[in-house]
Amino acid sequence: MNRINNKTLLLIIAVLLLSNILLLIFYRVPPKENQNKGPVDFISKELGLNDTQRAGFDTLWSANRARNKPLYDALRQTKDSLFGLLAVQPQPDSLIQAMVGRINQFDNRILLNNFEHFKKLRVICNAEQQIKLDTVIRKMGRRRR
Q1: What is the tally of structural domains in the chain?
Q2: Angle, in degrees to the nearest 10, between helices 127-144 and 39-47
Q3: pLDDT, tens digit, for every residue of 107-139?
Q4: Contact between residue 129 and residue 48 where contact means Cβ atoms under 8 Å apart
């Protein structure tokens, strides 16, 4: 009777071990349909861009990222400095207001850069793609909120 229980127990352990290994493999390997390389692939697929349009969009995307990168870096540093003032007593109100103003300036510049980027993207799209682009941009705007 002990032998049957031991064999049953070993079988259960083997099944559980095998199922755990399969689950690890399943979660480590992403599904092929979600293997987008980034926003360029997503937008290209959503709008149905041809190869020429896609190349143009890729160039626009790279230029916009390069233009926004220093702004994002400065924004992050300014926010870090602002929240670093929490440890300072008394907290200088004028300095806090100045940092908040700088943060707003960086946000505004990034927003305008992105607006100009999508305006340029709209130019390389045909009329049907422009309608789709407007819809996608609105969805992206709502998602971030």
Answers
A1: 2
A2: 130
A3: 999 999 999 999 999 999 899 988 999 888 888
A4: yes
